[in-house]
Amino acid sequence: MLPLTVLPVQAPVQHAAFDLIDTLIAALRANDTTLENGDVLAISSKYAAISEGRIVKLDEVEVSLEAEDIARRYHMNPAMAQLVLREADHIFGGIEGFLLTVKDGILSPNAGLDRSNIPNGMVVLFPNEPYKLAVAIRQQIKARLSVDVGVILTDSWLMPGRLGTSGVALATAGFKPIQDERGKEDLFGNPMQVTQRGIADALCVCAQMVMGERDEATPFAIVRNSGVQLTDEEVTVDDVAIDWHRCIYVESLTTGLLPERLEAARANGNGRAKMPTRS
Q1: Residue 178 to residues 130, 201, 250, 265: CA-CA distances in angstroms?
Q2: Which among 10, 88, 163, 262 could disulfide-bond with 257, CB atoms 3.0 to 4.6 Å apart, if both were Cys?
Q3: What integer pLDDT is reported at residue 269 of this predicted model?
Q4: What is the CATH number of the domain that holds 19?
Q5: What Cα–Cα distance (Å) separates residue 33 from each residue in 10, 21, 70?
Q6: Strand duo 55-57 + 122-124: pairing
Q7: Phi and psi for 236 in degrees, rounded to 5?
Q8: What's the CA gap between 228 and 97, in Å, rounded?
Q9: Inside any domain, residue 266
């Protein structure tokens, strides 16, 4: 088996809508790199979002009374609070400066709004319909470069209880993001009960090691010899997102609290019933 290889691909910094595929092709040429059949191309979801023009000026956001109330409660910029209300699929609650949300199947602070590596006073949203975008990118690469690759839109997230960001797949196209190990035997012949490997997320972690988070200007990475089997089968958020009531983090810290702690949380106004929500 060939060793897993991750190749960084630098590209120009962008602050407004641009042609993502033209930029990718030019970047491959400038980096003296080519895509090969079977590669997985990791693309910064933020870079992809900028290509769609998903940029907002905070001083142009009209703030509602609800957003003002949330901003006061969590000491947030009111315009940011308004954008989170608009963009999040669900809001659980928050801490100072941040709201815990679900956006496109991912638990994420502030619905994935990003103010880094963008001019001051502006914010980048998540891409619009990321799974459809990943499919479109894959199709365009195949049409223009005659190679069959997988595509991941990468983001970074905070693992509960841990310092530091890690890679997470916002969307995938061209391969199954989950490898189901249930029913297979472990080293001692015991059947696996619950293990499902997050292949797309694992590849994102690999890609993030060369893409960076700060000033690396590396919005693309080629993951080679990953062993994934390419397919044209549709992938959606339902293939990766777990129901909240089966999520150990969400359920254990809300309705799954020990009875006495659930009552204490409700009494202190921290229970789920008293958190701002958006369905």
Answers
A1: 17, 9, 21, 35
A2: 262
A3: 56
A4: 3.30.1330.100
A5: 10, 15, 47
A6: antiparallel
A7: -130, 175
A8: 39
A9: no
